[in-house]
Amino acid sequence: MARRWSIARQLFALQVLVVTLLVAIGTTGAVLLAHRDARDAAVAEVIAVAESMAHSPSVAAALRTADPSATLQPYAEATRRATGTDFIVVMAPDRTRYSHRTPELIGQPFAGTVDEALRGGRVVEQFRGSLGDSVRTVVPVRDPDGAVIGLVSVGITTDAINRELLTRLPAVGAATGIALLLAASGSWLLSRRLRRQTHGLGPAEMTRMYEYYDAVLHAVREGLVVVDSGGRVALINDEARRLLGAGDGPADLPPEVAALIAEQRPTVDEPVLIGDRVLVASRRETRFDGRILGTVLTLRDHTELRALTGELDSVRGLTEALRAQAHEAANRLHTVLTMVELGRTDEAIQLATAELELAQQLTDQVVGAVDEPALAALLLGKSAQAGERGVELTVDERSRLSGSLLPGRDLITVVGNLIDNALEAVAGTPSPRRVAVLVREEDGEVLIRVTDNGPGLRPDRVADAFRRGWSTKSGGHGIGLALVRQVTQRYGGTYDVQDAPGGGAVLTVRMPVPA
């Protein structure tokens, strides 16, 4: 099936049709106006000629002679030729002609209206006489006493008026042609621009495109933000509004998203913190025919996934630690059995009891200090994970925390990421490597303090450490401490980094307990 006309072509055809119709109407009006002007000019001319002859003393004198035609016929014809009129008739009050363009009609009665002229007035009419249709006037000729002694009729045929009008038509036609040419050129330029902007699509194609476009934008599960080349939000779908917390009106991008767009670099699955959400953003520029149209940003909600990933990492670390402890326990069990076989029963019991007391002491300390089961499990798991890494992780004996003060998930986020950051800080440093954790309630706040003996953190890097994307690891995402900052700010708390005595860093977080 042949492709239907594009919007640009339809608009061009419609504009040409409308302009042609308007120009035709205008031209018709101009011709009618010119015809009326020509007729008015003819009326004015015949009135002037008739009045001039009627007031001529020679005409009045000739009318009083025995043969008025002898004088009036040559005078009237000379005047007719001089003025360009078609006929001049001088007649008696009883309509008898004394002059005429056709000599054979002299002496015959005048055909036309003369009643008003006989009463001293003037007659102006369009009448069909011996020469055809004409515009004529009839005026009275008076003697010195004011009596009407004759009549003068002057006329111009409509054919002569039309011939005069025809002389004006070339100018009207030229104006019409110029108007059509200008209008068609303007329509063509407009349609050409519209064709470029619509890419030659027809109305049905654009309607389908809009319907599909609107359906896809509302149905897609990813947030979509389109920013034009000027940095203004050109499009944002429902999911993006939900993820960014934007209303139904014009959307203002959060600073984190605006900074990501302004970086002018391709971005794939980069984490972004927006309020309580962890979003994964991908950014790329859009181009058409080599021109940069703007930037497209896709957003996915990874809040739950990040939380589950953190919990999975903790479980994985705990599993690895348990596997290592199982291996160590097997070694110790073989040692104890061998000592029993050698008859050194007392030493075997002493060795087994010491290992159990050490493990139970840590468990009792954590469980006794922390009522929140998830946080207690996290501390035990991190302790085992630290032991696997060769790091001594201790829980400060001053730790005391009720399980109902803050939600367990937020505590796990803050404590877990602070401990992970400390473990990474001491990794690769000489032994002994130590990490200490303090979690307690004091003065209506939850105090979380993690101390390590790693290389520490320079004061000028503290702000960067809690910013998304900053990491000391080459492959890190820099999301851990950013999540700590996010949770802390949500509770209106504070965080800071100080140098530890003897080297290392002390990361302290204070979060007010909600009423």
UniProtKB/TrEMBL annotation:
It comes from the Bacteria. Residues 296-515 form the Histidine kinase domain. The keyword Zinc does not apply. InterPro entries: HATPase_C_sf, HATPase_dom, His_kinase_dom, PAS, sCache_3, Sensor-like_sf, Sig_transdc_His_kin-like_C, Sig_transdc_His_kin_SpoOB. One of its GO terms (molecular function) is phosphorelay sensor kinase activity. GO terms for cellular component: plasma membrane. It is an enzyme of class 2 (transferase). Keywords: ATP-binding, Cell membrane, Kinase, Membrane, Nucleotide-binding, Phosphoprotein, Transferase, Transmembrane, Transmembrane helix, Two-component regulatory system. It catalyses: ATP + protein L-histidine = ADP + protein N-phospho-L-histidine. It is found in: Cell membrane. SUPFAM superfamilies: ATPase domain of HSP90 chaperone/DNA topoisomerase II/histidine kinase, Sensory domain-like, Sporulation response regulatory protein Spo0B. Residues 209-245 form the PAS domain. It holds the Pfam family sCache_3_2. This is histidine kinase. The lineage of its organism: Bacteria, Bacillati, Actinomycetota, Actinomycetes, Micromonosporales.
